[in-house]
Amino acid sequence: MKTKWLYSLLILGLLATTACNNQEPATEAVAEVKKVELVTVKEEQAVKVTELSGTLQPLEEALVSFEVGGRITELAKNEGDTVRAGDVLARLDSNDYSLQVAAASATVQQTGATLSKVNNGAREQEVTQARLLVDKATIAYEKAQDDFKRIERLYQEKAISQSEYENAQNYLNVTQKDLQNAQQALSLVTQGAREEDKELSRATYNQAVISKELAASTLAKTQLRSPLDGTIIAKLTSEGSLVGVGSPVYRVGEISTLKVVLPVPDREIFAWKEGETVSLDLYGQMREGKVVKIYPATNQSTGTIGVEVQVANEKHDWFAGQVVKATKTVTGKAGLYIPVEAVLSRGQGEAHVFLNNGGKAVKTPVTIGEINSNKLEITSGIKEGDQLVVKGVDRLFDGDPIEAAGGQPQ
Q1: May I ask the CATH architecture of the domain 34-46+334-404?
Q2: Closest residue by Cα to residue 258 from 276, 280, 236
Q3: Which residue has the higher pLDDT, 134 or 54?
Q4: Most buried among 31, 174, 200, 203, using CB within 10 Å?
Q5: Which residues contact 381 (CB under 8 A, 6 or more apart)?
Q6: 0.85 cut: is pTM over it?
Q7: CA-CA distance, 387 to 319, in Å (whole number)?
Q8: In whole angstroms, what is the distance from residue 271 CA to residue 10 CA?
Q9: Which CATH architecture has domain 61-93+221-249?
Q10: What's the mean per-residue pLDDT of the chain?
Q11: Residue 183: which of 123, 145, 121, 137 has the closest Cα?
């Protein structure tokens, strides 16, 4: 039974094999037509939109501080107040400085009087008095001479002692010196002071004047004045505070015009020119800014060059410290530019695209030039008028049948 069963299976297998060999050969499968998006390659102008961000700053700004120390007695301005250059912003206690001015003024008066006396010489009364003293000294000297001659004869005759003789001689010498002193005093009041005494008096007076001016200048510095036209951005202290030289009291800025310094990559700086306009965007508010300055050096840490842009802010509705976005359109050279997604690359510079040639995808090597936003410049491999596959390239092989999706290529 088992043998007959195996034999029957073998006969059935042979019949099946014969039947298969007698069938007609199968037809080849028809290739699938793939839907793609096509564009016509055209030469166009490269356009690059540059977007940069920067922080708004006052056009001019100053931290205002006292040049002298003291206690603040008044802060006249608050945040948001408009000020003009020269307006008083704050005051210090000035009592000590006022006393210094008064002392310096007194010294000027004193040294001025001395200088006048030296320059003008003695008064008439002083000259008369000096002459009288000379006359008095002359009379005393002449009398002493007569007395000495008489005493000298008596001494020679041994009528008086040596002591009396010496006293008369000494008295004569004293009267002679008194006469000389009186004559010198008269000479001083009639001839005036020496030139070096006049110079010394003049120098002392000039020094006193300088000291007074310095004291007055110091007193004036107890009033803090605005160095520019602008707005009080911040008040940095309070009344009653003791401040030193250079301690900031106010921050003042010109905010009717704001500025922003944009960090432009150094490779793109050639496209920026002074005087041109730039669009600024602050939370959807658009304004035109003007390029006023291009900085002369590259920031070594960022590789950028600062470009200063100024924007009008008459209503003060844009604020210092806010971040704005600047947009600038740069036109480049003409060429063949295609979308990035149309190019396939295997690395090491090997790139290719697919062109439409009679309904079939043709793999075409290309050379890539510059990158411009989301497009690549093609310097070789395709030409103007070619039908380029821009979507669906990742599903294509060389020679695949293709069909434009949605109608004719653009």
Answers
A1: Beta Barrel (2.40)
A2: 280
A3: 54
A4: 200
A5: 352, 353, 364, 365, 366, 367
A6: no
A7: 52
A8: 88
A9: Beta Barrel (2.40)
A10: 85
A11: 137
